[in-house]
Design brief:
single chain, 422 residues, alpha/beta, Urease, subunit C, domain 1, TIM Barrel, 2 domains, 8-stranded mixed sheet, 10 helices, 18 strands, disordered C terminus
Length: 422
């Protein structure tokens, strides 16, 4: 079998970078990672001399809304109650855009009409190029919760696409099982308001009994649960119930950090969206942008503490929402480096190894190791020296998913006489 051999690479892994690396890809897998070594080259092998450029694992967006659309009508925020076929087309476009931005994996943070499950099947059938996708559910929460405001009560209708409205522990069990039946691999629950919703952050949208029942039902069937959570009390309630992923985590404290490390709970801060939204509100003259900015500052202050303690932090945000369009997925890496003081290598770890762990695939994704799947990026530069380089599409010379080049601008780079260009 012909191989792809990358030579003279800075091999950037979640634990650090090493120069003068040679990485061999055969079929779907990495078969060799060596340093300062000579590899025998066969007549059919393709050899690319990277000349000190960076080879790194593909990234994972661990909070991704494939259907979010900032131009949705006022009665259908983010387009979530628009026609399913329209939303599916949008989802396909957004997932392909994510892959072509260097994110070879995605974990859904919620989607209507079981669209994510269908997108996963379509990608696996080769109908369009997309990332490895962990399909999400509709938003599971109670009557009148923050997401249950997309229609007036007097219309006497339900938001069937985006919401699985539930009340009481038994109803939460039913809702979770219903979402799993429709293909969800991770359940989204709206535990509180806040963080860009119409309800205040201090409002808890469900009882501890409802939350625990839903989590138990999901875990019984091998499915994870993530929660939109934006206050301290709800964070502790969710940790007590055994939640897997805390989205946003406004109000995080050191006691919660200790518990998250103990339980292996993931945290997706997703603070870039509220930051940009607050900036937009400050310029609008509406007056509440400053309050939002203060909340964001508090959330960012605790992140270095959580990171140093060993919390499994993740990348991902509400792309497609107002002020955060799809396509700028790598912006948040710079944001956490610049605004929260997180070292670039740590943020890259969030986007690679930790994302792979969330997907349950850290044994084969998220690092450049022998036997791992060849989900790789070739970057013209070093992200550890300038994290912003990952925002520039022209700087990502190649994107490989499972040994297949999705993007290939390597032909302009040197090759050897023994190597062959296709």
């Amino acid at each position: 079998m012909a191989r792809h051999i990358f030579r003279d690479a800075i091999v950037l892994n979640p634990d650090g970078a090493r120069p003068s690396g040679t990485v061999v890809v055969e079929g779907r897998h990495i078969t060799s990672v060596q340093f300062n070594s000579v590899i025998d080259v066969g007549p059919d092998d393709r050899v690319t001399d990277l000349g000190g450029r960076t080879l790194m694992p593909g990234m994972v967006s661990s909070h991704f809304h494939s259907t979010y659309h900032e131009l949705g009508s006022r009665s259908t925020p983010f387009g979530l109650e628009e026609p399913p076929a329209l939303q599916a087309v949008r989802a396909a476009g957004n997932l392909e855009r994510l892959l072509r931005s260097g994110f070879t994996g995605a974990v859904s943070a919620g989607a209507p009409f079981a669209i994510d499950a269908s997108m996963k099947l379509a990608i696996s059938e080769g109908l369009f190029p997309g990332p490895r996708l962990m399909a999400g559910s509709r938003d599971v929460s109670t009557t009148g919760h923050a997401g249950d405001k997309s229609f007036p009560w007097y219309w006497d209708v339900q938001a069937q696409g985006a919401i699985n409205r539930s009340d009481g522990p038994d109803d939460f069990r039913r809702a979770v099982r219903d979402e799993i039946k429709q293909g969800a691999e991770i359940i989204k629950m709206f535990v509180t308001g806040g963080h860009g919703t119409v309800a205040p952050s201090e409002r808890i949208e469900m009882t501890s009994e409802e939350l625990s029942a839903g989590i138990d039902a999901a875990h019984q069937r091998g499915v994870l649960v993530r929660g939109h959570i934006a206050n301290r009390q709800a964070i502790h309630m969710a940790l007590e119930a055994g939640i897997d992923v805390i989205d946003h985590g406004d109000g995080l404290d050191e006691a919660a950090i200790e518990k998250m490390v103990e339980q292996g709970t993931f945290l997706v801060p997703s603070q870039l969206f509220p930051k940009r939204f607050a900036e937009m509100m400050n310029g609008s003259g509406l007056g509440f942008g400053a309050t939002m900015a203060g909340d964001i500052d508090k959330a960012l202050e605790i992140l270095p503490v959580a990171n140093a303690a060993g919390v499994k932090l993740l990348c991902g945000d509400d792309y497609g929402a107002i002020s955060l369009p799809h396509g700028c997925y790598a912006d948040e890496l710079e944001f956490y480096v610049k605004e929260a003081g997180i070292p670039p290598l740590d943020v890259i770890r969030w986007a690679t190894q930790h994302g792979a762990e969330l997907m349950g695939r850290a044994h084969e994704l998220g690092s450049i190791k022998d036997g791992f799947l060849a989900d790789l990026l070739v970057v013209d530069g070093n992200p550890l020296e300038d994290i912003r380089i990952l925002q520039n599409a022209s700087s990502i010379l190649a994107i490989m998913k499972g040994g297949t080049l999705v993007k290939d601008e390597l032909l302009a780079l040197p090759t050897t006489e023994q190597g062959r260009r296709p």
